[in-house]
Design brief:
single chain; 7 helices; globular; alpha/beta; 7 strands
Length: 239
């Protein structure tokens, strides 16, 4: 059996596509999300599905310990769980900022904390953090969301440097607009409508399966090769 892959936010969108892609390559999986039923509905072999809130670091560690006992050490962690709550800085409810920071930043750090020490000790392992083009440049109505994704870019690169000599790889994947449920988290109907118009102008956005293939490409490189960052978007996406 191949190495265990842990995927957060695996109940839909990019996370579900990642699960299918890595399962097709023969990897046992630990799928984590708040909703268990959609993960179980994927019906993937050698897969453990556990309801976990990524803001709960201890729950992540407990779930991983259960999977390790069944499948062996974690070969790869994909931190994919995230929310996108768009709004203007002067009108957006600050509770939405807190939610994004907790899930998009602390959730990623919690995942890393759960696996990194063991990876360093074993001198192998790969952590893939799903960020966004919004972690490289700013967009209207995206201030707090951009702040979280810039943080993901920064912490990924920082930790990559720290563990490079331990032969542990950290990879940032920064997609543009993707066909997922992410926009549904936003509460402003006006912003949702504008986003929908933007997608139509582009002639459609990229599929989650494309992001999963990018993750596989990075993961399947020799352990001595680290693809530090992959940025990908629809050809017609200008910003």
């Amino acid at each position: 059996m191949k190495e265990l892959i842990v995927i957060t936010g695996a109940s839909s969108g990019i996370g579900a596509a990642m699960a299918k892609a890595f399962s097709a390559k023969g990897h046992p999986l630990l799928l984590l999300a708040r909703r268990v039923e959609p993960m179980q509905a994927l019906a993937l072999e050698n897969t453990l599905c556990i309801s976990v809130d990524v803001t709960d670091g201890e729950a992540i560690k407990d779930a991983i310990a259960t999977a390790v006992e069944q499948f062996g050490p974690v070969g790869g962690l994909i931190n994919n769980a995230g929310v996108m709550l768009l709004g203007q800085a002067d009108t957006q409810n600050p509770t939405e900022w807190t939610r994004m920071l907790n899930i998009n930043v602390m959730g990623v750090l919690n995942g890393i904390h759960a696996v990194l020490a063991d990876m360093k000790a074993r001198k192998t392992g790969t952590i893939i953090n799903v960020s966004s083009i919004a972690g490289r440049k700013t967009f209207p109505n995206h201030a707090a969301y951009c702040a979280t994704k810039f943080a993901v870019h920064a912490l990924t690169e920082n930790i990559r440097e720290e563990v490079a000599m331990d032969d542990v790889r950290l990879v940032t994947i920064a997609p543009g607009a993707v066909e997922t449920e992410l926009l549904s988290h936003t509460t402003s109907d006006e912003i949702k409508a504008g986003y929908a118009d933007w997608k139509e102008e582009m002639g459609g956005v990229i599929a989650p399966e494309t992001i999963a293939e990018a993750a596989l490409f990075a993961f399947e490189q020799p352990q001595s090769v680290c693809v530090r960052e992959i940025v990908l978007a629809a050809t017609r996406q200008q910003p």
